[in-house]
Amino acid sequence: MNKILKLTSKAAVVTLMLSLSSCYYDEIQEIIVEVPDPPEGVEVSFRTDVEPIFSEESNNCTQCHDGTGLNPDLRTGRAYNAIVPEYVNDNDIEDAENSKFYQNLPGIGHPIDAGFELDVDQLTQIKGWISQGAQNN
Ligand code: HEC
Predict the structure, then answer these.
(1) Are 23 and 58 found together in one domain?
(2) Which pLDDT belongs to residue 59?
(3) Of 41, 68, 80, 129, which has the maximum CB count within 10 A?
(4) Are residues 56 and 23 in the same domain?
(5) Does the model's pTM come out above 0.85?
(6) How many whole angstroms from its chain centre is CA 109?
(7) Ligand 1 neighbours (beta carbon < 6 A)
């Protein structure tokens, strides 16, 4: 009787450990998105590098962020004023990954499933644009 109890509780502990470790693993996976800085001396342009990302067919933010109420409005010509300064402020330039905009990007921590995730190249452009001063360039 005792033996059976012991075995059962051992099995429970192992199951618990397995399930805990799998959650833990998922979390780690999400946190480690290694996004490099853009190469030294390469200026990131909002208009030519960043803004077009929001309307790309494979990851079209503007199907939802279309200016009808969901902030930020990410349509071409509107996105800059919708993002700066509300989602990217002066302090964020020191720490781009901590900005509200970056933190909420699909692939980082978008609040709902957007149906896609931005890839590392796209994230690099956005992060680089912020750390270079989030200019309207
Ligand atoms: C399928 C619709 C959909 C798509 C596609 C989508 N979003 Fe969102 N996004 C939402 C919704 C809905 C929220 C707000 C959720 C909430 O209120 O908690 C949101 C929230 C955000 C926020 C945070 C807003 C805030 O005030 O906290 C940011 C930033 C954002 N999205 C950026 C993007 C970007 C950039 C893209 C494209 C790369 C994108 N989203 C694609 C629906 C979408």
Answers:
(1) no
(2) 98
(3) 129
(4) no
(5) no
(6) 4
(7) 54, 59, 61, 63-65, 70-72, 74, 87, 101, 104-106, 110-112, 114-115, 118
